[in-house]
Amino acid sequence: MKKHIFWTIERALLLLVSLIVLFPIFWMFLTSLKRPRDAYSISLNFKPTLDNFAMVFAEPWNLGSMVLNSAIVAGVTVLISVPCASLAAYSFSRFRVKGRKILFFMVLSTQFIPAVVIVLPFFLMFRSLGLLDTRIALIIVNLAIVTPFVIWMIKGFIDAIPVDSEEAAMIDGASRLRVIRDIVLPMAAPGILTSSIFCFILTWNEFLFSLILTRRDAVTLPVGLVSFRTERGDLWELMSAAGVMITVPIFIMAMIIQKHFTRGMTAGAIK
Amino acid sequence: MTEVRLVDIEKRYGSFLALPKQSLTIEAGEFLVLLGPSGCGKTTTMRMIAGLEDITSGDVLIDNDRVNDKPPKDRDIAMVFQNYGLYPHMTVAQNIGYPLKLRGISKAECTARVLEIAEKVELEELLKRRPSELSGGQRQRVALARAIIRTPKIFLMDEPLSNLDAKLRVTMRAELKHLHHELGVTTIYVTHDQMEAMTLATRIAVMREGRIVQLDTPKKIYSEPVDLFVAGFIGSPSMNLIKGEVENGFFVAKGVKIPVQFSDRCDVVLGVRPEDLEIVERQRATIMAPVYALELTGDATLVTIKDGATSICVRGPADFEANIDEVCHIAPRKPEKLHLFDKSTGERLNS
Amino acid sequence: MQDRFLSYALLVPAFVIVVATTIYPLAYSFITSFREWDLTRQRTPDDFVGLQNYAHAVAETGFQNSLWVTVIFVVASVVLTLVLAMSLALLLRRRGPLHTFTRIILILPFAMSPALIGVSYRFMFNPEFGVLAVGLGSIFPGLKGTPWLADPDLAMAVLVVTDVWHWTPYMTFMCLGGLASIPRETEEAARIDGASGFRVIWEIVLPQMKGVLLVTAILKTIFALKMFDQVVTLTGGGPGTSTETLAYFVFNVGFKWYDMGYASALAWILTLIMMVISAWYVRMLLSDKNTATA
C-alpha cells in the first residue's frame, strides 16, 4: 500500500518535471503559429497560421541568410575542430607524452575562460584586418570556444576503448597510423559523432561573439532574434517563429545522439 | 625455429624497479612458461619481447638480432591476449585475416587461408559473425586463429585461458599442446595457474617480485623445488610445509618425528607432498595427529590432520573413512621425497 | 621509438588552434589592460598606465555593483541547480517508460540557445500577456499584475530561473553518473539493517556522492560566472543595473563606452576569479582519477 502511494507521487513528480521542461518550448511553438493579435493573449483558442514563418524569411528580416550563416559557421567549425581534436585526444589518451598532464590541463583550462576576455582583442584584431562582419571571423572565434571541449569529450570516448585491440593490431603488423585508421576511428565513431553534434550545437547557439563581431552580413540566428525588437515593441509572434527555426535543427540533432548524451556530457567530467 | 635471448634485461617504471637485471634464453622450438603470482613481472617480460613495453636497459635478441628498437610489427611475432583483443567492428573472418591484409596479400588468397585456419579451430560456421555475438571460448579460438594464420617466429600468450570456465580450460590446454607439437613454433606463455604451466611447458620459469627464481623442466620443478616459494607454489593440493628442527637424525615437530639424513639444525621446514605420504598402522607411523577434515575428490580422499601449529594433508585411498578428531597415523612413502628448507632464507638444504 | 615523434605530431593541429585562438588573444588583452585606450577618441592605444585600470575598477561603483550582482546570481543559481539536479537524479534513477521519456526530453533545455531562453522567458513573464505572469497571477491573486522584469529583485529571480532551467539537465546527468557508480549493495545492506528509504538516501547515498556533488558545484559555478546571453535578451542588465553581472558590465564598458583598456582590466579580473575556481576543479578531477584516464 505504501509502495503504491510512493509510485503515484513519483509518477506525478516526473510528469511535473516533464511539464516544466517542455512548457516554454511548447509555448514558443504555439506562439509562432499565432496571428499578431492572438500572440498577446494566452488563450489556446485561435486559428493557427504559417504566415509568421513566411514573414521572417522575407524582407526585412531575412532569416534565410541568418540560417545560412549559422549553418556555414557551425559546419566549418565542426569540420576543422573535430579532426584536429581527435588526433590530439588520441595522443593524450594513449601516449605517455612528457608533460602530458600540464598540456592537458592547459587545454582544459581554456574552456573556463570567460568569452568577454577574448572578444575584446578579437574585435580589435578583426577591425584592423577588415574581418568584422565576416563568417571567417566567427569561425575563428568559435574554434576557440569548442576545440578544448571537443578534445576533452573525444578523449573520454577513446579512453573507454580497450587498448588490447590496438596492441593486437600492432603485433599483427600495423603501424601506429594504420591502427588509428583501421581500429580506433571505427570504434570511436559514435563518440566522435556525438562530439561533433555537441560542437555544432555550441556553435549554432553562440551569441556573444556574433553579437559583437557582426553587423549585417554575417549575423547568425541567435543574434537575429534580437532584431525583432522594434520601436513599436517586440514582435513576439515573429520572434517565436525565428525561435522555432533556431531550435528545430538542434532538437533533431540532440535526439540523434540522445543515447550517448550522458556519456558525452560527463565524459571526463567525473570519474 | 627461433631462439630468443634476454641479456641483462632491466625494467623500471620511474623509480620503481619492476625487473631487476637478469638474463634468460628461450631455446628454439620450446614452450616456455613464465609462471608466478600477479605482479611478479611475467607479463612485463613478455611485453618487452613483444615490443609493447620499452626496455630500460639490456638487450632483447631474436635469432641473434637486436630488436630493442624494432616496433612490434617488424618483429614477426604473434600474440594471444588475455582479453583476446579482437576487433569488435570486424567479422570473425576479417579479424582472422587482418594480419594478412596488412601484408598486402591478395583478397582471394586471404579468404582461402582464413577458411583453412578456421576449419582447423572449428570456426567455419561463425566466419560472418561479430565478436560480440560469440561465446568466450569461441572468441578465444578467433584470437588463436588470428595468431596462427601467419606462422610467425614466436608465439606469445598472455594468460589466454584465464577467462574460460574450468572445463573449457582443460580442453583448450590439450588443443594448445597439440598445436605446439604440430607447428613447432617457439612459444612463450604467461600464467599464474601452475596446472597450466605443468601440463604445457617444456620449461617453466617461476618468477617472484621481478626475479626468475627457478628455470627448469616441469618434472624438476615439481620434484626438486629450489626454495620454499617454488615448493609451495607448484602442486595441487600444495606441498605440506612443516616448521620444526632436526635433532639426532630426526626431523621433529608437533606430532611429527621422521628419520632424515641431515645434521642437527633448528629453524628448518620440512616439505613433503600429500601424495608422497600414506596412511599406515600405528607401529610404522612417524606422524600422528587428529583428523581435522576429510575431502573426497572421487579418486582419492584428502585427509587433513592438525595438531597445534602443524597441519598436514595426505592423499589417502578413495574408500578411506575416519571420524573428525580421531587420531590418524601417517608415514612418508620414500625418504627421497622429503625436502628440507631453511626457514628464514627459504633455500633448499638437502638434495 | 618513432611513437614519441608521432605523439607530439598528433598534438600540433589542435595546439595551433588553441594557441592562435585563445592564448594569443588572452595575452593581447592582458597587455591592453595595462594601457589607456578609449576607442572613441583614438584608433591606437595610448601609453602604459600600469595598474591604473585595475585601481579604477576597485574604486568604481559600477564594478562593485556588478561584483555584488554576480555573487548573488552565482550563489542562487548554483544552490538551486544542485538541489534540483540531485533530487531529479534520485527520481530518475530507476527504469520505466516515464523515466526514460523524462530523461530524453531533459536534453532539450540544454540544447536551447541561452539567448533564446532569455527571449522566451521575457515573453512569458510579461505582466499583461505573458502566459506565466498571467497564469501565476490567477493562481495566486497576490501576484496579479506584478511587474516581474521591472522590479530589481524579481528580475534577478527570473534571471536565475532561466539559468536553472538551462543547466539543471546537464547537472542531473552528472549526478546520475555519480549515482550509478555507487555500489547497490551499500543501500541494500542499509535497508536490511532497517533504515527507512529517506535515511538510506540521507545517510548512505549522499555521503558517497560528496565528491561528485563538489565537482558538479564547482563546474556550475564556472558556468554561472560565464553567463551572459540571457542578461542581454531577458533584462538588458536592468532594471537599472540590478542584473548587471560582471560579464555584462565588461561588455558594456567595452562595447557601449568603448573604453578598451578598462574593459580589458575588468575582463581579466573576471578571468582571474574563474582561473582560481577552475584550478580547484581541475585539481579535484585529477586527484580522483588515476593517471590512466588523466
Task: Give a quick summary of the entry.
Chain A contains 13 helices and 2 strands; from the N terminus they run H-H-H-H-H-H-H-H-H-H-H-E-E-H-H.
Describe this structure as you would to a colleague.
- The complex is a heterotrimer of chains A (271), B (351) and C (294).
- Chain A has 271 residues and is mostly helical.
- Chain A has helices spanning 2-32, 36-39, 51-57, 63-94, 100-109, 115-129, 135-159, 163-172, 176-204, 208-213, 221-226, 236-256, 258-266; strands spanning 229-230, 233-234.
- Chain A has one domain (53-266): MetI-like fold (Orthogonal Bundle), CATH 1.10.3720.
- Chain A has a two-stranded antiparallel ribbon with strand order 1-2.
- With 351 residues, chain B is an alpha+beta fold.
- Helices cover 24% and strands 35% of the residues of chain B.
- Chain B is built from eight helices and 20 strands.
- Chain B has helices at residues 42-50, 92-102, 107-120, 136-148, 166-183, 194-200, 218-223, 228-233, and strands spanning 4-13, 16-26, 31-35, 57-62, 65-66, 77-80, 154-158, 186-191, 203-208, 211-216, 240-247, 250-253, 256-259, 265-272, 277-279, 287-296, 301-307, 310-316, 327-332, 339-342.
- In chain B, the strands form four sheets. Chain B has a six-stranded mixed β-sheet, with helices on both faces. In chain B, strands 13-12-11-14-20 form a five-stranded antiparallel β-sheet. In chain B, strands 15-19-16-17-18 form a five-stranded antiparallel β-sheet, with no helix packed on it.
- In chain B, strand 11 and strand 12 (250-253) form a beta hairpin.
- In chain C, 74% of the residues lie in helices and 0% in strands.
- Chain C has 15 helices and no strands.
- Chain C has helices at residues 2-9, 12-32, 52-59, 61-92, 97-105, 107-111, 114-124, 131-139, 152-180, 184-193, 197-208, 210-226, 229-235, 246-255, 260-288.
- The model of chain C is unreliable at 290-294 (pLDDT under 50).
- Chains in contact: A-B, A-C, B-C.
- At the A-C interface, helix 1, helix 4, helix 5, helix 6 and helix 7 of A face helix 1, helix 2, helix 4, helix 5 and helix 6 of C.
